[in-house]
Amino acid sequence: MLNGKSKSSQDELQVRLGFFLENNSRRNLRAPANQSCSSLTSANTSPVSTLTGSSEADVSRVLTMQEAATHHHYHTGCESIGSMMSVSISEQSNASSSPVSRRHSVTTSQSGSNVDELLAFKSRRTTVRRSARSGQIKGPIDPKIRFAQYRQQQLTLKPLFFEVPTQEPDPLFIGRHWLVRELATAVQSTDSPGVLLSGNLGTGKTALLLQLVEYSCFGRRKEMPIAESDGIYCQINVAHDRLRSLASHVVAYHFCQADNNSTCLIPDFVHSLAAQLCQAPQLAAYHEFLLGEHALQHVLSVKECIADPERAMVMGILEPLATLRRVGKISAKNCVILIDALCEAEYHRPDHGDTIASFLQRMSEHFPSWLKVIATIRTQMLEFTKGLPYTKMSLDAWTSNESLQKDILEYITFRINQSQSIQHNVAGGREIVNTSAHFKFAQHLLGLTKGSFLFAKLTLDLIERGNLVIKSSSFKVLPVSLAQIFLLNFNLRFPTATAYERISNILAVCLAALYPLTLTEIFYSLNALIAGESTGGDGEQRERSAGDDDRTEATETSAIDWDEFLCRFKTLTGFLVKRIDNTYMFFHPSFREWLLRRDDGESTKFLCDLRNGHAGIALRLSRLQAPLDPDQALELGHHILKAHLYRSAPAHHSPRDLQAYWVASVTSCVSSALSTLRNVYSPNIKVSRLLLLAGASPDHVTPFLGNAPILCIAAHEGILPMVNLLLEFGASVEQTNSQGCTPLILAASKGHCDVVRQLVAAGSCLGQTDTSQRCALVHAAIAGRLKVVKYLVACDWLPRAEGGSGAADVSLEQAAQQALIAAAGQGNTEIMEDFLDMGEVQVNRLDVITGETALTTACANGHTETIAILLSRGASTEVRNRKEMAPLLIAVKEGHWAIVERLLQHQASDVELREANGKTALMVAAEEGHVGIIELLLNRGASLIAQDKDGLTALSWACLRGKQQAAKCLLERGADKQHADSTGRTPLDLAAYQGSASLVQMLLDHGAPIEHVDINGMRPLDRAIACRNVQVVQVFLKRGAKLGPATWAMANGKPEIMLILLNKLLEDGNTLYRKNRLQEASHRYQYALKKIPVVTGASESVTAMMTAAIDPLTGGTVVADSNNNNTSSTSAASNATFQQLRFNFLLNLSRCKRKMNDVAEAIDLARQAIEIKPNAYDGYYARSKALMEHGNYAEALRDASTALARAQQTSPEIRDTLTRLHSDLQKRQMQVFADTANSALASVGLVASAMENVRTVAGATSRSIAESMDIITDL
Hints:
Layout: H1 7-17, H2 23-28, H3 56-65, E1 86-87, H4 94-97, H5 115-119, E2 128-129, H6 143-146, H7 177-188, E3 194-199, H8 205-214, H9 240-247, E4 250-255, H10 266-279, H11 284-291, H12 294-299, H13 302-307, H14 309-326, E5 335-340, H15 342-345, H16 356-363, E6 371-378, E7 391-394, H17 402-418, H18 420-426, H19 435-449, H20 453-465, H21 482-493, H22 497-512, E8 517-518, H23 519-528, H24 538-548, H25 562-570, E9 576-578, E10 583-586, H26 589-596, H27 610-624, H28 630-643, H29 655-666, H30 670-674, H31 677-681, H32 685-693, H33 710-717, H34 720-728, H35 743-750, H36 753-761, H37 776-783, H38 786-794, H39 812-826, H40 829-836, H41 854-861, H42 864-872, H43 887-894, H44 897-905, H45 921-928, H46 931-939, H47 954-960, H48 964-972, H49 987-994, H50 997-1005, H51 1020-1026, H52 1030-1038, H53 1045-1051, H54 1055-1074, H55 1078-1091, H56 1098-1105, E11 1108-1110, E12 1117-1119, H57 1124-1155, H58 1159-1172, H59 1177-1190, H60 1193-1206, H61 1212-1237, H62 1245-1272
Parallel strand pairs: 3-6, 3-7, 4-5, 5-6
Antiparallel strand pairs: 1-2, 8-10, 9-10, 11-12
Helix pairs in contact: 7-9, 8-9, 10-14, 17-18, 17-19, 17-20, 18-20, 19-20, 22-23, 22-27, 23-27, 27-28, 28-32, 29-32, 32-34, 33-34, 33-35, 34-36, 35-36, 35-37, 37-38, 37-39, 39-40, 39-41, 41-42, 41-43, 43-44, 43-45, 45-46, 45-47, 47-48, 47-49, 49-50, 49-51, 50-52, 51-52, 51-53, 52-54, 54-55, 54-57, ...
Keywords: ANK repeat, Phosphoprotein, Repeat, Synapse, TPR repeat
TPR repeats: 1143-1176
ANK repeats: 739-771, 850-882, 917-949, 950-982, 983-1015
């Protein structure tokens, strides 16, 4: 520990330890250099101890998802248990990012780079993770390499580290077949949410749960074959399948351990439970769900679990699981959560809040029926679980339960048969095996056990080792209780008082620790208790002398070196068991309790004094780890109070003042210690008092609950003792959090009436408001806290003294008026009626904050009963809110049918009531799409033709908001579909503007005018184009809407609309061409060519098109507000499409002109097409045909050759057609040459006849080729 430090640093550390030793002694005072976390193998480690979150289940799921080769091979044999651990890999885990560190949790960060630092418990806030997937691994492992293959699959949730210590490497487990069968039946039952298994000490409750974990997805025996020669398992082969079947339902487990406080705390329980559920293969869907829900990951973080564990449990675990099961993502199979030793958690009962047992009781109603809990508890502490609705099973009826007797007898018989030493001892030392003596002994021991496997085991161990020698057949030498067994063991180990005194403080330190300690921590805690003659410092002398009078053991006068410490510690072998993380725990809770307390009539020998242990830990923390961080300061305060070091302090010094001075002198910031997350939400009152005495500020601002002071959080959580403590030390009742909430407001909103009383008595101002201008009374009314409301109303509302912010305070009358409206809005009728009984409150007055009346806010929130009460108490339906909305209009807008009907019935309310802009209730209902209310209003006589200030009817509003069902209802009830508003817009215009294609289709089906023109010259199609409603435009085009000048004007700058319109012209032209209406088709093509945007210099073209814009709703001209970058990118993207369209139109128009015998125009159009796409064969083919019609065979042949060359990558049919055209042109050209050469022989008849035949064949071939190519160019 001291290696690498200078001699002066060593001396300084020795002085702080109180050791003024010689050089030799100092050199011996060291921890062995070879002690490191890379060698955590222990012969005492139990192979049936539970596994942590990096379990085989996690690996199996990862390997299933990633079928990739890995460089690691995982072995699950028992011989590899020593290396079944892995270092916490993430510095960004919850523990490192939150102000809370969990010592024995895998969320704790660890550098892993400096082995020496791991020996120094000053920085030991780390842990290790145990894994069944790891094999024998030599030397340190780089976690970045080891976990690289699936790091991205991991969540920030990390489970607690559990290990149940045992004395043997592989403890024997026999029997319990009947219990497994009963548990399996209970798990499959739908009558109970779980099973509560009770039993006395040593009845095997934990052993059974360990077996279930071992055979579950988290264990090493999940797929282990059963060998007939295996003595342990040959006894359970019959029930093996049943045990494995029950274990297959396990999806999480938790072991509460009194000597490991983190396992007994609810926040850690919830966080660890979520982490294990994510790793269970049965709940892989839950893991995937959390990966995509970062908000839920935050809810399940350690910080949030501490602040609100109930919310984390319900929102982060139970509700997602129920939802996933409901949608079929989790298989229809009951799942089980194992929770061991609920009684152990009771030893860490917080000053405020639940234990795990009471927490489960409150959460049981939220558990889905398929998620079962199997929990265990000691029989003597069953009263703590009387509220749990679980099926009760007991292991204590051993006299009447033959199965219990059979299990223990089977265990005893097996032990006797497997041990010759036991056989020899039972037979009285004779070599011949006496079967009758063995049977008699087994029966006698069975009667002594009273159902305790632990008693049978420890007794047989004593006999097997020869510590008990059976001399008579009466077996009187056998112990009769666990206490006698422990006493016998200690008498054998420590025959003298001196021998026990050598290890008594070691036991005291381990008993006093809040968590399992390492050898190094125990060593320094032990040495811190030694007060030699050379103790350094007057303060140290006072420290020791203050507590010496209360110690019963002799005090050593010199420090213990490391070798001497190891020698002493070795005598406790078997009682203290080493765990995977190099810490030590007592082998069984019963032994721990025997050291602490005895029953009446039992020997008090070897009782431990816990004060020594607490003193040692406190002194060690102060000397070696100062200045202490907040969590360490809380731990120090706990041990100081338990140690009672200053009980014999001088008269002029108060013991509490000395303790406070001690804490203040070694803590970096006592105020930060007071406001740690755990102490804020689950405070230790006595330690908090000590911190306040040490100088902690009662007004310290925390980073929680909106930077709230400590008093605000205590009031919000309803922790009355903490509130009283802070008020006692002068905490300000007027301090607020960032939302301006005072402690009184927070307590009132949560309904903590006792806290409210204390705050009011302490001078809290009743009229002080938060940033939303609401006082405590209003918040209580909103939350429905009737008791708090009655108390606050009965108090004297006195303004604050001058100098404060009294101007912002509200009077009782103002607060009551606000509270009335707030209560009405939440439907808290009882509170509302109380306020209505007050003379100062008026039912029709507007709230100065929200501008609502009680009736309008009740209408908005749909509280029918509240509205009935208000109407009966004189509320007026004519009084409007600040927005000039009457109650009827608000109810219509929110869709509350029953309230609308109630208001219409009350005093014949006007059905034609209007808003400030002239909208009637029917228009509001149509606008919101409330069909039921529309029918109700129409039945009450509402007018379909009523108009608002803009001339819009109910049908107009339905179309404007796209409410198709509302519009359909109005049309069926006779609404005018041709009505035009003040600007000439019909319902179809408004529907086109809104963009609902189905609504437009419905209006057209009902006969709405498609070509109606408003006062701005816009038609419905134009309005749809202006709004870029592509689907609506397509509907109009299919219904034959005409394309006018306004249409193209609206389409300017909208490439997607232009493409639709141009495609429409192309389809129309092609249809006309097929009908041989060439003139009309030619007109369509020419019209379209004029409308295609100019793509050359696209930026200028588009800019020109975008210089002006039309408002699609009103039809007026507005200044265009376009983004130049967006315009350029849109133009560039559409250039290619428009070029292709121009190319197609030119080709089709060329074909029309050719068939209309306008060959010259056809040639010119084909030339323009070639200029657009010079590498395409189409343009050359079109020009070739036009030239052929013109008689220019040479040019036609040249274009045909070019077309054939460009068509090499096209289909064979096209190439064949082009080849035939090329051949025909060659023949035609040859014919021209022949006609010229033979002009002199024109009179010869044979030649003329032959040439005529050639021309006939050539003409037929030309027509065939022409017809073929006409087909492939039909666009």
